[in-house]
Amino acid sequence: MTVPDPHDVEAALDSVPGVAGASVVLGGAGGELRLVLAPGADEGTVAPAVHQVLRDRFGLGLDPRRLSVMEESDPEPAPPHLRLVPDPELGPAEATSPLDLVSPPRLSPEMRPSAGRHPAASVRRGGRATLDRLAVATDGLGAEVTVSLVLDGTVLAASARSASTASAVLRAVGSATADAVRQACGEQVRVDVDDVRIVPLGDHEAAVVSVLWSSEQGAERCIGASEVREDPRQAVIRATLDAVNRRLALA
Fold first, then answer.
1. What is the pLDDT of residues 198-230, one digit of tens each?
2. Which positions of the chain have pLDDT values less than 70?
3. Fewer CB atoms inside 10 A, N or C side of the chain?
4. What Cα–Cα distance (Å) separates residue 62 from each residue in 3, 23, 31?
5. Radius of gyration of the chain (CA)
6. H or E element that contains 233
């Protein structure tokens, strides 16, 4: 039997809808196929198409344990901007979200000492952590999630492994997010995801994440939530950050 050229296999798989890139890695045990999915592609649809191309064009079968799939996604766009009623003298004004219509509360000088004695001390940072990139890689043994955040211009990245089921991946996403946040806090703080849920909310769904924020002063459970827009995994990241961002940036 003639062994096909890896470059021919890669070129054929690059044309499969939903595949952003393919690479064949040869080794002593045969080879491994690595796929990068296009944004929004469904692995359950892409994998059968890849198997069919390998079988029909090259006469190859594929052991699921020798297949790894990488999916990367950029942050989902924020909800549409709100435009305030313009003042003829001042010109139009914009708000990025309904929250911008309300001035954020600030602590009075008298309240700051008591806040400093909070059982789970906050970590003062200049801004809020936001999602930079999410990558999910699956193979025959499970899934690996990598979450990259940006905080004060610094990129914080962490990974977590799990089974490849949807619920396990969501929990891994939350855990990787919490571990990335912990990097900004130093050794004096521990951040653990206690629970992750996708719950119905009217006609929509929301991700709800319970985070345990621990320090030498004590521990506190923080709850965060975010609407599921398109990707529930990104909603879990936003909900996790909703739970902890107040601890990272004290007003």
1. 999 889 999 999 999 998 888 889 999 999 988
2. 1-3, 27-30, 63-66, 73-74, 77-126, 249-251
3. N
4. 14, 14, 10
5. 23
6. helix 232-248
Can you give the residue range of the structural domain that contains 233? 130-248
Indicate if 64 and 144 belong to the same structural domain. no
pLDDT of residue 101: 39
pTM for this entry: 0.64
Integer angstrom CA distances of residue 158 from 37, 42, 64, 175, 202: 21, 24, 26, 9, 33
Please give the torsion angle defined by the CA atoms of residues 49, 52, 56 and 57, in that order, rounded to the nearest 10 degrees.
50
> Is there a contact between 199 and 208 (Cβ–Cβ < 8 Å)?
yes
Predicted confidence at residue 75, as pLDDT, reads 77
CA dihedral 247, 248, 249, 251 (to 10 degrees): 20
Residue type, 91: G
| 69 and 138 inside one domain | no
Count of domains for the chain: 2
Residue 109 in domain: no
- Residue 39 is part of a domain; what is its CATH number? 3.30.300.30
Structure tokens at 74: 């950029």
User: Which SS3 state, helix, strand or coil, does residue 134 take?
Assistant: strand
- Domain final position from 73, 98, 116: 73
237 and 153 housed in the same domain? yes
What pLDDT shows up at residue 96? 43
Residue 200's pLDDT is what? 94
The domain that contains 175 carries what CATH number? 3.30.160.270
